[in-house]
Amino acid sequence: MPSATTTTSRRAGQAPPRQGRTPAPGLFLTLIAVCSAVTAANIYLAAPLLSLMARDFGSSPSAVAWIASVAQLGYAVGLLFFAPLGDSANRRRLVAGLTLVTTVALGASAAAPGATALAVAIFVASATTVIPQLLVPLVAERAPADRRARHVAAVIAGLFTGIVGARVLGGLAGQAFGWRWVFAGAALLTLVLGLASAFVLPSRRREGPLFAGLVALPSVLRGSPELGRACLRQAGMFGAWSALWTSLTLLLTGPAYGLSTATAGLFGLFGLTASAVAPLAGGLVDRFGAALVVRSAYLLAAVSVPLFWLGGQALAALFAAAIAIHAALVASHVANQTLALTATSTPATANTAYVVAGFAGGAAASALGGAAFSHFGWGGVCAVAGVWLVLGWGASWSRR
Question: Residue 352's Cα: distance from chain center in Å?
């Protein structure tokens, strides 16, 4: 029986991939999940280090909060240009090339003399660290149909473990060694894991124009209402999470709690909820469908917003809110991304539209959250998160 990858390649009119270097399915999935964790962490390294950066550059933490938004914006731009290549380019060469550029950009971040130079380097590093979104469509192609969401969930669990690791380990390492060494260490890990993943990827000759996927993005979105709804709902969910999570360090290290950067970073351990929820969400999607899981996730996120607001004065409420928002985000992501990957015959292009929408929503909400914190305090950040949830769900519902 032909594999899912072979079937998809033949259907798209492409030459079948050479599988000589591909390891056993379990080992392959593990390597992809670990690589996704390391590369996803690069996007969030700046968030727990804002206070240290501000001290180094002689400014206030709120004055450099925009750097975290630059990382998300860079990731969205990189996804727009690089992720569609998964439908037409040789993934092995593409992943290797992006890994090398990301490594150099992270090294430049570590040596940046000021906030502007750091922002430029982080933008480039985030734009080229799109490796997880090149690999997720491949995982979905190779997975059995009745276990596809669970395989996608395994990679998403790795991705969110990397996000949590960026906050926890980044905060601890930054406090102990300085924020520059955090970026230098990330450069080394990215180089090793990225090249290892590239080595085991199936090789495929490119067919057709290189940027055909990018050109086809508008028509793919117009032709799939389900994909459009998935994009809007994840933009709303990820925006709410980004507004809260990016500004949380400013709350914890500010007058309200007065925690150190390292202690505030430990707060990210509550995000490990995401890694535990992902396999469960994958099983629920395979069994009951994506729609029920997304509705439940939005309800949980709506509950978390007032808990975050109470967390401005009560640490216990912040604990509960952190668990709730991570569980909601990951359940929604598993369901929406599985839907996006199966909604069209061009999964890499559809996945690009989906993830770009999510990160564009996240970058915009993160920037607004930082501004709201400066002008209105923590309550303003919570208001931004609530508005983003309403917009995401309302806009996606109107597409019916």
Answer: 12
